[in-house]
Design brief:
Blueprint: E1 6-10, H1 17-24, E2 30-32, E3 36-37, E4 52-53, H2 56-64, E5 68-74, E6 77-82, H3 87-91, E7 95-99, H4 102-111, E8 116-121, H5 125-135, H6 140-153, E9 162-165, H7 169-185, H8 191-198
Parallel strand pairs: 1-7, 1-8, 2-7, 3-4, 8-9
Antiparallel strand pairs: 3-6, 5-6
Length: 201
């Protein structure tokens, strides 16, 4: 069985990456890794489904035990990816998507250089502000902080393999699957195809 692809999926808060991933993972060949975090649950969050919610002490203990593929601090909270959320699924041939911020993404690139890096951007910062305000889950101060973070993160998109603009959801999801098809055509990823051709003599 061919291994799945590790996909790093980053975007500023409010870009709609969660909505995109909900559409993408309707395809059973894709699975979102469930991250661990020390942030407080939001309405609708379910422990072990949307995130693994940990205390600072629990998170730091797991860091010390080497249980994370990557972890980073973001907006005064820890976020991290458990190794158990990644490798067993890749071995089953499932593509695993890590929804992580830029610092964590760069750590993954160091540890797993074969990972496919995708960055999602809003059509404009004005639109990003509108989406954050419409969400209605954060204070004006937090929104300003997230916009400031976005201005710092967006220039990092050039360090990724692909950039997708999430203006219209359907188009953004379509662009994701176009990226995956493009990746299949790369010579370095064509071992399976070449093997099949050689087996037909």
């Amino acid at each position: 069985m061919n291994k799945g692809r590790l996909i790093v999926f980053s975007a500023p808060s409010g870009c709609g990456k969660g909505t995109m991933l909900a559409e993408i993972t309707k395809d059973k060949n894709y699975r979102c890794s469930i991250s661990a975090t020390t942030r407080n649950p939001r309405p609708g969050d379910v422990d072990g489904v949307t995130y693994y919610f940990l205390t600072n002490e629990e998170f730091e203990d797991k860091m010390d035990r080497g249980e994370f593929l990557e972890y980073a601090g973001y907006c005064n909270n820890y976020y991290g990816t458990f190794l158990t959320e990644v490798d067993p699924y890749l071995e089953q041939g499932i593509n695993v998507i890590l929804e992580i911020e830029v610092k964590g993404a760069m750590k993954v690139r160091e540890k797993r250089p074969e990972a496919l890096m995708i960055f999602v951007v809003p059509p404009s910062l004005k639109e990003l502000r509108r989406r954050l305000e419409k969400r209605g889950t954060e204070s004006p101060e937090t929104i300003e902080k997230r916009l400031e973070e976005a201005e710092n993160e967006i220039p990092m998109a050039i360090k990724y393999d692909y950039v997708i603009v999430n203006d219209a959801l359907e188009d953004a999801v379509d662009d994701f699957f176009k990226v995956m098809e493009t990746e299949k055509l790369k010579a370095e990823n064509s071992h399976e195809l070449i093997g099949k051709i050689l087996d037909t003599k």
